[in-house]
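Design review, sub-item: ligand-bound model
Attendees: FS, YL, KQ
YL presented the inputs for the 2-oxoglutaric acid complex:
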Amino acid sequence: MDTHTKVLSSGIRHSNLPESYIRPESERPRLSEVLPCKDVPVIDLGCEDRTKIAQLIGDACANYGFFQVVNHGVTIEDVEKMLGAADEFFKLPVEEKLKLYSDDPSKTMRLSTSFNVNKEKVHNWRDYLRLHCYPLHQYVPEWPSNPPSFKEIVSNYCAEVRKLGFRLQELISESLGLEGDYIKRVLGEQGQHMAVNYYPPCPEPELTYGLPGHTDPNALTILLQDSQVSGLQVLQNGKWFAVNPHPNAFVINIGDQLQALSNGKYKSVWHRAVVNAEKARMSVASFLCPHDDAVISPATQQHGVGAIYRDFTYAEYYKKFWSRNLDQEHCLELFKN
Ligand SMILES: O=C(O)CCC(=O)C(=O)O
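KQ shared the predicted structure:
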């Protein structure tokens, strides 16, 4: 790729889908077959009955691997500021953004494109800004200083989302019949990463993806979806369902580490982002990740079911994840007993 075609958000509207983005026939999204999703649960965290919330979360984790939360404690103002800062960042002149470009996944701050350009055969219609976010004082200095408010707005958002993530981990622990602090304790001092995803309008959305089907390698993902433009889809019983934006909600999904920790009871579900011809779409994914040295092993074993996965450290898992292409088999399959 030459410098100007390194990212898609260059200000140039593409009239054709370049060859390197075209999926073979059998791998295309078949958008007309996607079902409107009526029932990804929306859970009200403001409800006073904690046992009920934990139960709803447990059902959602076991049956869907996905749920949405409202009354989650992050203010609308903080959410809007976050989306505004992301929007301003992607509107910067391409020369400015390219100063931050890297396709090396080990970098703690980088603007990149697609998923893993050096590993994949076909590219994806996405640019993304990937940030490490914890501890903030260590990483904020390397974040973009343009737009000027970026660091302050995004660090505030990260701190709020982290609190929400811990609250959810407590409820997930309780839903598994564990002590409230179980997950937090065994995952050690958790890392936090962010992917600010920007999917420009795409000339031929039927032929490509923003992100192909994948599961998340971390513990828990808190996704802020564009409030106007849909694109997220989840796999349920072999069919893709659209998860359309719900007002003031975050979409939460279980990552591979919580599937392993729950010995397969809770599902790290395949999901993907599709693109559309008219509108750009933005999403902000926050990932809580176990400490590198945390040993992931089953906390619960159902009667008669042995440990499905061998014990591993998060560092080992993460290295394996990034050594592969995104749309291969579930990475956890490689850790099965
Ligand atoms: O853009 C979306 O809705 C999905 C993003 C996602 O799956 C990710 O960043 O891992």
